[in-house]
Amino acid sequence: MGPKQDWSMANGTAAARKETKVVHYRECQRNHAASFGGYAVDGCREFMASGAEGTAAALMCAACGCHRSFHRREEEAECDCSSTASG
Prior knowledge:
Elements (H helix, E strand, L loop, with lengths): L3 E7 L2 E16 L42 E14 L3
Antiparallel strand pairs: 1-2, 2-3
């Protein structure tokens, strides 16, 4: 899914606004004791990719060995706003 673009007219000028999201994966929330009815997390504070971006290893955490989906996802909205004059 690509960045969202919003085109609006204000005072005769077209302004292009491109919003991107920065995603961080924080602490691991995997319950390692679920198989025997308990609750215990490993304490991994933040996701660290095991490999280069675009590889299967990039989805595994180097600190705890869990898949990235077990880590809490945190999104930050970031706007790359630019305006251009038309005409």
